[in-house]
Amino acid sequence: MKVGILGGGQLGRMLLQSALNYPVETFVMENDPNCPSAHLCHHFVTGNIQDFDAVYNFGKTLDAITIEIEAVNVGALEKLESEGVAVFPNSSAIKTIKNKILQKQFYKASQIPSPEFLVTNSLSELRVQTSFLPAVHKIAEGGYDGRGVQILRTAADFEKGFDAPSVLEKMVTIKKEIALMVAMNAKGETAIYPPAEMFFDPVLNLLDFQVSPAQIPPNALWKAEAVALRVVKELKSPGIFAVEMFIDKNDEVWVNETAPRVHNSGHHTIEANYSSQFDMLWRVILNYPLGNTDPILPAAIVNVLGKENFSGKAIYKGLQDVLKLDNVFVHLYGKRETKPGRKMGHVTILSNERQELIHTALKIKKMLAVESEVDNL
């Protein structure tokens, strides 16, 4: 089976690593021929994943296509689907999720609990919404890894907002943030992973570290699983999805966002679960039985981010020390250049003891730093 991946970053890289276990011929398209996925696929094509002709020409001889980022040309995927190419997830699901306005409207229409929102198309429309504060302003398209999101607490913050179509979302009092990975095959059968509890860097607004399974009350777990399954079933598409949620002070569950692909919050599944999120997606694409989502051991992951004030050829300080630790697994993404906040890798930790997971995660954050040959910022 010939399968293409649109995007050549770390998600594509880990998907390709998992593909080695299956009879599949892999194709990747990305602008950068030195991207993390380029040397791991059977065929690499340099091209713009947002360009109609590039995506169509890339996919027209393939059996199936999947994505590692939502910013792809949906029109080309629609045409490919009409010509018999399978797309995971389908173009309709990608179209709904890649635009945050459409995504929020989908939650509302499907009666999925999500924070109250309104749509703004310009800064002038935003400035009259004082009564809606405090709120979070999210640009409709183009936001990624914390970019395209602004917290607005008072009218003075309006100038930080976006002068473009956006969602203004009522702020929820959050007790915990969790994410659940859900897979669905072409028959509508589903598999759900235990939730991961996420801890964010307050400055970069990026995932700092996470622990799985999340420590949440049984009633909140039941609600979270039911809501995550509803999101995926309402999208009516085979694939794998990350459903990110808030749990409030009353243990009510609110969907924050959904990603229609493998996701940072599922990276621990490579070592910690019987079937990883990457293995699971290949099972869906190749029409194999869904994998076992049970955990082997509880896990934590730490994101390895480019250190502030360093930009240039990456140097990993403290890597030798981290590799000496027991039950610790280092994944570097093969990115040659570092810059502040850039995702350069992740580290997975396994332990039966939650406190040990958190302690080791915090220790690794201090031990491992991504610097550059020259501090040129």
Word description of this protein:
By secondary structure, this protein is α+β, with helices and mostly antiparallel strands. The chain folds into three domains: 2-88, Rossmann fold (3-Layer(aba) Sandwich), CATH 3.40.50.20; 116-170, 2-Layer Sandwich (Dna Ligase, domain 1); 174-372, ATP-grasp fold, B domain (D-amino Acid Aminotransferase, Chain A, domain 1, 2-Layer Sandwich), CATH 3.30.470.20. It is 26% helix and 31% strand. The chain is built from eleven helices and 21 strands. The strands form four sheets. Strands 10, 11, 12, 13, 14, 15, 16, 18 and 20 form a nine-stranded antiparallel sheet that branches. The chain is globular, with a radius of gyration of 20 Å. The mean pLDDT is 95.
Summarize the structure.
26% of the residues lie in helices and 31% in strands. The chain is of the alpha+beta class.
* Proportion in helices: 25-40%
Overall morphology? globular
Just name the CATH architecture of the largest domain.
Answer: 2-Layer Sandwich
According to DSSP, the number of beta strands is: 21
How many discrete structural domains?
Answer: 3
Structural class call reads alpha+beta
CATH superfamily of the largest domain: ATP-grasp fold, B domain
Percentage of residues in strands: 25-35%
